[in-house]
Write a structure and sequence with these properties.
binds NADPH dihydro-nicotinamide-adenine-dinucleotide phosphate; globular; alpha/beta
């Protein structure tokens, strides 16, 4: 069995989901309530591969909300993630993906040092961040959609916002090694980490967001921002392609211009329907088929019986591992989302 640990994108989202799944009494509760809510298994489903193999999974709602970080409720945030992991392990799940901010909280607050949760000793081999598959999917989206839109990568400037992150650095490695992208713009806040990435790649221009965005033909958004940013549409290149891989979204939904195309990043479509309700709750356009690439990674590990934390730690994703997970992604019937909102 595989598992998925997820969370709502905001307090408002949590309240509307509670209403939708029959917990009306929680729909009016505030942030303090969510800080004390325990993890819940809210969905159980099967997934069938193109090979015919069928696996079973469970979705664990951690009740973490990004507002917990914004309001410095760090203890609550870390407790949510650890409790959800302990919950998944107690269910005897082989491999569980830490979706969205779960892995970011785990890494940023060094939760690998806290292994014991009540009577459960966490076995980190049973968890994966899902970031290798996510990075692979975003890179394939860059390659395929740029071609679809007539943007020649060999002449293109690609800005990666969140370049020094786990996903961002993997995207940079792939673009550097596997494509002929003309220019890479590296965007994040910490200068030391940016310089280390630039040295590793042997290329790339370090830039602030305001300077980078107007120069880019393609912008990959993978910054860990608890709230979406507003960008000045008039300053962007026309045409340009924005691939938003953030959860919650890095971009506010107000980007509306015929020559600025916005693609949901890090999303895959499965070839066969999945009988679940959770993707409806996060407003996927085709909820039976579309899902986050990190969740799909735990399915792939279960299909292949690779019971190991395939994606773990920070900034260790290699192009070889992206190719490895990419090959089984295709084999089992997943493909990157290529259609626009
Ligand atoms: P990391 O924490 O590893 O990296 C985040 C990056 O964003 C860092 O480079 C950080 O650098 C940068 N960053 C953070 N805030 C800002 C800011 N205000 N301006 C510019 N840069 C910023 O995160 P991950 O790589 O694990 O995840 C990235 C995003 O992808 C998240 O939104 C996550 O939820 C989402 N995600 C999506 C998945 C999917 O399946 N679609 C799966 C997993 C994650 P610095 O702090 O120096 O600025």
């Amino acid at each position: 069995m595989f598992g998925l640990i997820g969370h709502p994108t905001s307090l408002e989202h949590a309240q509307s989901v509670a209403q939708d799944i029959g917990y009306e009494e929680f729909a009016v509760e505030d942030l303090d309530f969510w800080c004390s809510a325990p993890p819940q298994t809210v969905d159980e489903f099967t997934v069938t591969s193109l090979t015919g193999q069928t696996i079973t999974g469970k979705y664990v709602e951690s009740c973490f909300l990004p507002e917990m970080l914004a309001t410095r409720r760090i203890k609550a945030a870390t407790r949510k993630i650890l409790n959800a992991m302990a919950h998944a392990q107690k269910l005897d799940i082989n491999i569980t993906a830490l979706g969205g901010f779960s892995s970011i909280v785990f890494e940023n607050f060094n939760l690998n040092q806290i292994q014991k949760i009540r009577n459960i000793k966490l076995d980190f081999q049973r968890f994966t961040t899902g970031n290798t598959h996510t990075a692979y999917v975003i890179c394939r989206q860059v390659e395929q959609v740029s071609q679809q839109l007539g943007i020649d990568l060999a002449k293109a400037t690609v800005a990666v916002c969140g370049a020094t992150g786990d996903i961002g650095s993997a995207v940079c490695r792939w673009l550097n090694q596997k494509t002929d992208a003309r220019e890479l713009l590296l965007v994040a806040r910490d200068r030391t980490r940016l310089e280390a990435l630039q040295t590793e790649l042997g290329r790339g221009k370090i830039m602030g967001m305001d300077e980078a965005l107007p120069q880019a033909d393609i912008i990959v958004w993978v910054a860990s921002m608890p709230k979406a940013v507003e960008i000045k549409l008039e300053t962007l290149k026309k045409p340009s392609l924005l691939i938003d891989g953030g959860y919650p979204k890095n971009l506010s939904s107000k980007v509306k211009h015929p020559d600025v195309r916005v693609l949901k990043g890090g999303i895959v479509e499965h070839s066969l329907d999945i009988s679940w309700k959770i993707m409806q709750l996060v407003n996927m356009d085709v909820p039976a088929r579309q899902l986050f690439a990190c969740f799909a990674e735990s399915m792939l590990l279960e299909f292949e019986k690779w019971y190991t934390n395939f994606s773990w730690g920070r900034n260790q994703i290699t192009v070889e591992k992206m190719e490895q997970i990419g090959a089984v992604s295709v084999k089992h019937g997943f493909r990157p989302l290529l259609s626009f909102e």
